[in-house]
Design goal:
The protein is of the alpha/beta class. The protein folds into 2 domains: about 200 residues, Rossmann fold; about 160 residues, Rossmann fold (3-Layer(aba) Sandwich). About 40% of the residues lie in helices and about 15% in strands. The protein contains 15 helices and 12 strands. The strands form 2 sheets. The protein has a 6-stranded parallel beta sheet, sandwiched between helices. Strands 9-8-7-10-11-12 form a 6-stranded parallel beta sheet, with helices on both faces. Helix 9 links the parallel strand 8 and strand 9. The longest helix is centred in the first third of the chain and has 22 residues. The radius of gyration is 20 Å and the shape is globular.
């Protein structure tokens, strides 16, 4: 590397980003040129989100700060208040520890607080998974704002890299790496199907659907009524067991989770788990008959498991699609029809055996190689290419 060991701080505030980050965290930990620690905040410290900080502790990654900033109320102001609390704590951490680089992934709302703090304190930022488009959620604006406040970019595809260039970012700052979360998809040791089903009380010998619904942060069309009606229709039109994981901390997520918890207590066909953890989530993707909802994991990861996906609503509008997914409106009858369609042998031929366009399992390797080759002295002075 030709440089002193670099101090890397990685931020994670939700299970949805920790899973994709984990292969990269492992690579940082094993590389002698880097000294890495995590800032763990927001959803990871929430019981309603499954206290997923326990998974990070179990994995043994060093945690430099635990920031319990989340205000869990079903109100738009709660997001701003949570991020304000995070920014204060984070500013103190950065001032004390002065990392050489801050690493963030994706488009969660808390990244505005995280990245702007680093910007004001002259700490270079690495942004993973930028350049993507999800027009149905405020994540879209957040992601692009983070891009403009970041100094190095690791998009998953060349199309997304071109989007970043169009935003005026210099080409030398961009490396197409693929999604790091795909690096261990096919290599992770998972429980057997019998073990998995037994642990989550999913009956044997019947298919199960893995489902995650987040709120649509712009139009809020995924609500209690939709979830209740959808489950009733799925139970009457299929024989499948329904395994739901929790919505994230966006506005509207609490209502979705309370609805799922209430239904799971009275309907034996429905299971609700706040968080499966990365290993069991990958196991669920491996053994499920299909995925249903509006999580990015359905579009990014599921092709690697060769299972079909029904993507509901506009939350992921604009994101690239693997051939295993179909899009459908927030309409119960249309969702039921789509579930039947993707379960057919004809649709199976569309995606079986095809590669995942989001990565080939070598993203972490590319990221570390790029970091070792880049001129760190040039990072902070950004020039636009408009």
């Amino acid at each position: 590397m030709g440089l002193d060991k670099k101090k890397i701080t990685v931020f994670t505030g939700a299970r949805s980003e920790y899973g994709p980050l984990k292969p990269l965290l492992t690579a940082f930990r094993e590389d002698p040129d880097f000294e890495m620690e995590l800032i763990v905040a927001a959803g990871h410290l929430s019981s309603l989100q499954g206290n997923t900080i326990s998974e990070i502790e179990k994995d043994g990654f060093p945690i430099g700060a635990r920031i319990n900033n989340l205000v869990e109320e079903n109100d738009a102001s709660a997001v701003s208040i949570s991020n304000g609390k995070l920014q204060i704590e984070l500013a103190n951490y950065l001032d004390k520890n002065k990392p050489d680089l801050l690493v963030v992934l994706g488009d969660r709302s808390e990244l505005i607080a995280v990245v702007s703090s680093a910007l004001f304190q002259s700490i270079p930022v690495v942004h993973l998974s930028g350049g993507e488009i999800t027009e149905g959620a405020t994540d879209n604006q957040i992601r692009h704002a983070v891009t403009k406040m970041s100094h190095l970019h690791f998009p998953s595809t060349e199309i997304y890299a071109e989007n970043i260039r169009k935003m005026g970012e210099e080409d030398w700052r961009i490396c197409v790496a693929g999604e790091p979360g795909l690096d261990d998809v096919l290599h992770l040791s998972i429980p057997t199907e019998k073990e998995f089903r037994s642990h989550y009380e999913i009956p044997e010998n019947i298919p199960f659907i893995l489902s995650t619904f987040h709120s649509e942060t712009i139009n809020q069309s995924i609500d209690k009524t939709f979830i209740t009606d959808l489950i009733a229709n799925l139970c009457s039109s299929t024989k499948a067991h329904l395994l739901f994981t929790a919505a994230n901390t966006d506005v509207g997520g609490i209502e979705i989770n309370e609805t799922l918890l209430e239904i799971s207590k009275t309907n034996p066909r429905v299971s609700f788990v706040e968080s499966l953890g990365k290993t069991n989530y990958y196991a669920a993707q491996h053994y499920a008959s299909l995925m249903l909802g509006n999580s990015s994991s359905g579009l990014i990861e599921a092709q690697s498991f060769q299972i079909p996906v029904v993507n509901v609503g506009s939350r992921q509008q604009g994101r690239l699609r693997n051939p295993n997914s179909v899009d459908v409106a927030v309409d119960v009858q249309k969702v039921i029809e789509a579930v039947q369609f993707v379960s057919s042998e004809a649709f199976k031929q569309e995606y079986i055996g095809k590669a995942n366009l989001f990565g080939d399992g070598k993203a972490s390797e590319r990221i570390l190689h790029f970091l070792k080759s880049v001129d760190w002295e040039k990072l902070l002075l950004k020039k636009s290419t408009f």
